[in-house]
Specification:
Mean pLDDT: 91
Oligomer: single chain
CATH architecture of one domain: 3-Layer(aba) Sandwich
CATH class of one domain: Alpha Beta
Strand content: 5-15%
Low-confidence stretches: 246-254
CATH topology of one domain: Rossmann fold
Radius of gyration: 21 Å
Number of helices: 21
Shape: globular
Amino acid sequence: MRYVSTRGDATPRTFSEILLEGLAPDGGLYLPQRYPRVDEATLSRWRMLPYADLAFEVLSLYIDDIAAADLRALCRKVYSPAVFGSEAIVPLRPLEPGLWIEGLSNGPTLAFKDMAMQLLGALFEYELARRGERLNILGATSGDTGSAAEYAMRGKRGVQVFMLSPHGRMSPFQQAQMYSLSDANIHNIAIEGVFDDCQDIVKAVAADLAFKRAHRIGSVNSINWARLVAQVVYYFAGWFQATSRTPGSGLTAAAAERISFAVPSGNFGNVFAGHVARMMGLPIDRLIVATNENDVLDEFFRTGRYRVRSATETHETSSPSMDISKASNFERFVCDLLQRDSARTRELFAERLPRDGGFTLDAAALARCADFGFVSGRSTHADRLETIRQVRRQHGDLIDPHTADGVKVARALRRPGETVIALETALPAKFAETIVEAVGSAPRRPEGLRGLEERPRRVVVLPPSAERVKALIEAHDPA
């Protein structure tokens, strides 16, 4: 398997090369030259596998330059009950007829980002040791990516993490979870702006090829294909669990043929992983994109217009990890919509987006969204509070605000006979203030995370300047 850029750099690269590189040299994102297809016989064989072995089977289709025995060992080390709390790793639980929740948030930081980040940390350490090299990871987070990356990389040999976050815009728990880490290889940088400012800095630093190469800059954001492909696995796992339910479970044979996923979406990486699974042949009916008040993606799927909002237009909401107005993974999806027309993709994202703040796709391209199974909906603060209340009152299940956005949109768009699996994105403990507002009491917090907000913090506050961030990296890079 080889990888090429969405913007036309057709130099084929191996998985290990793009693992450490992040963005392509031309500023594009890497995609595999083709999506491998799996048939019914393969699906039948995979159905009975434990999660770690399923991960190996999926990933081995994309990773052919790491020894199979080593890759299998990495998957088994990462996807274990010791790390994720259960044999199922991503247990599926019923909510109501036609609606299930897939539990993706049982890892070390209580968020779905652990599903890919724990593997990414292991892959980085493995590949750097194999090469005898070091890596400075530069990332941006709106909440959960940062803590998942830092917990996965803390203490890893040859790795330093420089994580940008929007100053004061994450939940108190999210801030404390990141800023309380004292590991010498972890550096937190709070940017005076919004998440999109952080993301722009990451891309600007990556675009400085001389600096990137001199300081060995890598990425853990979902612009890194390795992280995204790891997320593909839990779509297979969720689908297998749903279609393996016994009679009387609420899932009929007909419904088993119409399984969709509802995905809370901000940076588009989570739902794009579902698109990859569908392109591989997993029979997903629809991919339901759920946004909050920052509804750039919902507007696109309704109208074909992709219009990036400014920092002043980006709302600060009660589902803060989705407070994103420039979805970095969206370029991959548009490239597929344009049938891998890299010249057209480059024009849209390298020219029109910076100049005009957006673009509109033609009717033929927009029609392919439906061919790919995409629909979308929007949720507000009032919606998520009411959804949290209803789910708690009716089902005794407490969900976080982002998952509530997914459940709300799933309920609104679910069709008769369709089974929707809503992807859980975090545990309620990470967003106690909103949970208290919704149900009147604070969510239970895991024992090891009590008193987190009172711990000493290590964080530097900087203006939204790529040059200031580069100077900080230089100050800590031993090269």
